[in-house]
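Case study B.
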Amino acid sequence: MYQPMLFLHWKQARTFLALAVVAAFALPLLASEGVGAPRGVDVSSLDAYRFGFEAWLPFFPALAILIGMTLALTAWNWDHRFDHVYALSLPVTRWQYTVQKMLAGVTLALLPAVGFWLGANVAAASIALPEGLNAYPNELAVRFFFAILLSYTMLFAAAAGTIRTTMWVAGVILCFVFFGNIANDFLGYYYDFFARENVVLIVFEWMFETAGPFEVFSGSWSLIDV
Amino acid sequence: MFRRLLLGALAASLGWTNALSGQTQQTESELIQQLDSLRPLLERAEAELQAYEAHVREVARSWASEVARVDTVRVGQVRIITPVEQVEAARNLFAEVWEHHFASVDHSPALDEVLFTFQWSDARVPIFTDAVGPHGAVTVHPVEYDSRQSRAVVEARIRSVLALAVSMDLSGLGTDYRRWDPGNPLDARSLESAYRIVAMTQSQASRACLSGDIDACASAMGLGTATGVRQIEDWYSPNERWSLIARTYAGARMGRNSNTIAACLDERSIEHCDQILVDAYRDLTPYRSDVRATLVAHALEVGGQGSWSRLRESADMTPSEALEHASMVPAEELIASWLHRLVENRPDTYERLLPKSGLTMLWALFFAALAMRSTRWRMG
Amino acid sequence: MNSAIELNNVGWKAGKSFELKDLSLRVPVGSIYGFLGPNGSGKTTTIRIFMGMLKPDHGEIAVLGRSVPNDMKKILGRVGYVPERPHVYPALTVGEQVKVHASFFGAWDAGWAKELMGRLHLDPDRKIARMSKGETGKLLLLLALSQRPDLLVLDEPTDGLDPVVRRDVLSAVLDYVSETSATVFISSHLVHELERICDWVGVMDDGRLVAELPMQRFKNGIKRLRIVGAPEAVEQIPFTLLSRQRDNGAGSMETWIVRDWESPMRDYFDGVGATVRDVIDLDLEEGFVELLRSSRPQYENGS
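Model:
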């Protein structure tokens, strides 16, 4: 069952995947070429790296998220289009169908990740590193893959649910963001903990920095670092 | 306002009188006579002024007693004026911030010159608005906060005004060392940040420093003894010197016509490059105030009790001597221990990648489990 | 197992507009069951319910002797389904779609699939997105038949197809049934189409099953009677009175539409002082229309 799933997903996403592989390969190279560095400055110098590469850093997680999102949407595109009728007429339990579909997407996610890994290695090899600095192409590629994986699975899960479930989840998140601060201030009048801390910020910090799902996006994306 | 108008009118009348005297060439006795005639006017003005001030005081007293009775709280050296109902909050907040951020400040004369006010900005009457800024012998630092702001925000505001006040103690030190924020403790995060800056600094002195050359560290900090071209040669390699200038003139057509600059940039004549750098008004010290601040903080920690007072008293010394005096250890030893600490806190860029990736995997599995709950009751 | 599909008191509601009310339905094993009804009567909903795609509010469902939805995986392995709207992947070619579909079914008959492809004039390299409605319909039937199903569920399989393709599709179904004795459940609003091939018929209207009987009885049992002197109140009639209407003009002539009519039943009218002037056979479509008219509340009491 995995093979037809992979084939179907590939048929849906192949054009995008081809572009994604090229983009993932090119991004570290473009960044390391010191695009944005002042004209006339030796691009292999550290300052050129800082000028050029750091400007490109936000694009790394952004590309990963874009790839993950598109893979998730293409995974369910045909199912949604035909009201899931085809999938539901197959002699497969729903959870098996979902798992195989998800695994197919994860397999396809490897393609841009490999492209990125190659690009990062070529980029790292092209930079003359001063003493004290190191290149991390493999680690960066691993982070890139996991960033794709996470955005893919997250959106895949959202798209797998019914519209009602998705609306519920989105509604709860929005309510938490919009009304959380107000509730926190209100509780702050009665409880010292809420007067001292902002629960919304704590949750966000946990989500993005400590152990939450978004840590992979907010962590280090440096190809070159100390 | 009334007082200012009165004094202005008086000054104007005197000026007019002086102008007249210059025109008519009055004798000295005539002038004295004329001034004596002004005395009743001055005395009346003074009396009116005093009456006005007494009235203002009376109004303020009656008004304050009705709507905003205030009290003065002391937390160590810190004096805070606050409405009576906020006395407890002010004491707790200032005490906590002081203990957490300013433990190394044993005595700060600057604090004797400062009053802090603490009140809700949305209180019915902003009682201390007039008191902001220099006020007689003291400077007033207000801490106003919105009742909806969290305690962390208010604490940050207190930390900021305390740091501003206490930093005045270091006004005698060199600029870059004075810029240190006394409220920022030397924690792992700031050391990591300093390490990254040091490692990224494009300077041969900095690279040598990271390799363990203490003299190079001192030089990169601006604590070395060399001056002029020699100092620049210590800091930067010829290629780096050329890069400094190239970066300055990158994309700029103006100034490139100079023969010296052209010789430096186009012919890569390092003598010409050095000449430009020596003549430049820029501070070329590789480590800027952010790195130097960590050395000051380290010196205070090493010096322990009394280090703040010693640092404060060393205004006439060179920065190197001041740091030695504060830490009570030789500068080389101080820099060596600083470097050791910096290297120990080297940021682990990808060291925790595996456990973090494991965490991401767990989240991915969690989302997969959510997706598996996808129901076959899709329609309807 | 006497019934290939069995629904007992199944209820399902979608908002305020539509509802299946205590639907009970039995499709005998080996039959070709025509599921008739006007558009919007609940045919597709009923199919989706016993195919496990919609969750009923109440009631029990069994398909091929197994419970729905608990045994769906086993049931669907033996059911060939052609949905109302094409559901195949437009980016695939016919050959690719057949290959993908085959991988899900253990009993897939690759040889027959190939034979059907030739017989239905389907090009394996043709992209589905570029196929006509008729070609897509034939592909769907190919997919369903090549599974070698015990039950074939066809939801409006010939709707919108030209006569040639319609004939191809129906003959392929009949060939399969004659060869395997599989049960066929075929829904349609085209009465004549079902008349030729079905041996059982169920009629849906407004979410209710208004009739379920052998096709022969359906075809022969519905009559239009011309009666003179019929009493106002009728009791203990031996047939089912679907409607009665007084003719325009003078006299006491009435037209009755009845179901389950047999000739000896004329005696009933003699007993109540009435006379049967004519007994007129209705064709299937007329019978279907009269059945629907009689089942709707506004047509009750012959008004």
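Chain C has ten helices and 14 strands. The remaining cases will be described in the next quarterly update.
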